Amino acid sequence: MQKKGIALLITLLFIVAITASIGLGLKQINNASKELQEQNFLLQTRVILDDVLTILKNSGELNTVMQESSPSKLYAFLSQTKAIPLELEGYHVEVEITSARKKFNVNNLMDANTTVNNPRVEMLKEFVNKQNINSNFIDLLLDNMGKIKDDLSYNSAIFSEKPMLFRDYIASNRHFEEIENYYESNYNDESLKKFDFDTLFSYGQSRKDIIDLNYATIPVWELLLGVDALKARTLASKSGQYTKLEDLDINAAQKVRLSKFDTSFFEPFLEVRLEIKNTKQKALIYFEYDMKTKKGSHYVYEL
Questions:
Q1: C-alpha distances in angstroms, 186 versus 30, 173, 189, 243?
Q2: E-strand spans in the chain?
Q3: DSSP string across 41-82
Q4: Is residue 123 part of a domain?
Q5: Same domain, 60 and 91
Q6: Per DSSP, what are the bridge partners of residue 98?
Q7: Across-strand partners of 110?
Q8: Domain count, the chain
Q9: Buried-most residue among 54, 177, 235, 243 (CB within 10 A)?
């Protein structure tokens, strides 16, 4: 009960800080831009984004989490900040803060030198086969993270059809969807539609993202250990309670399999989602926040 009370107090203080800061910024902009509302919408979203970043940087709660490297305190904070709705100056603002290390970065199938990590590839092929998806799909993914090949030794003909498609790494969900569409049309296979890869994969340039086992999704547990959904759900239900390998109820073979991936029990990276709406416009902003460096990165804007 005491832990819940502390977590709730932390959240209330965080919401008060966001409300006060964002409300002040919006009031100043609205007074100056009544005749240019549409043109200034981007400016308004930028003010909100800057305020959220400032609050994160100055958050005493997050500073304490970092100083103590505390998985339990990070979990307490995130469990109360999954959705913070605010009504301010004619705007509806919703802030969601979750772990940015709950999924497997698909680009970690290769290292920075584009050397394939064969154990991970084979385990991912095993996983997709359980979803009735042909393992050729994984070969397509590898083509899109292996950079330009002068000898054209790709696993597929995807770049003949899509010559401008980025090949250094899978950069975003939209990039992934391009690959999905090619697979479905060329392999006459719609099995991809039956599985939500957004619950499994993250994207981006890094080849060193570490999965935080305190936030791993159910599909991620299935991939990491080769277990069924029931066992994965049990492991995911105990999120926030893990501090060491012995805390996991897994056998020796599963521990060996887990060692093939980069995992830990404390990764101080946040995924922040902002939804900003007025009566006519809407914006979605996603970014990753590094609690150690206090910097945001991987910004995605959807207007």
A1: 51, 20, 8, 45
A2: 84-88, 91-99, 104-105, 201-202, 211-212, 263-264, 269-277, 282-290, 295-302
A3: HHHHHHHHHHHHHHHHHH-HHHHHHHHHT-HHHHHHHHHT-S
A4: no
A5: yes
A6: 271
A7: 116
A8: 3
A9: 235
**Among 167, 81, 180, residue whose Cα is nearest residue 137:** 180
Q: What is the pLDDT of residues 108-130, one digit of tens each?
A: 999 999 999 999 999 999 999 99
Q: How many Cβ atoms from other residues are within 10 Å of residue 27's Cβ?
A: 12
Query: Which of 169, 194, 209 represents a domain boundary (last residue)?
Result: 209
pLDDT, tens digit (0-9, with 9 covering 90-100), for 249-274? 999 999 999 999 999 999 999 999 99
Q: Find tokens 């277990």 and name the residue.
A: 227
Q: With 0-12 CB in 10 A as exposed, 13-18 as middle and 19+ as buried, what is 240? A: middle
What span, in angstroms and rounded, lies between the C-alpha atoms of 17 and 35? 29
CA dist 110 and 75 (Å) reads: 30
Residues 199 and 112 in one domain: yes
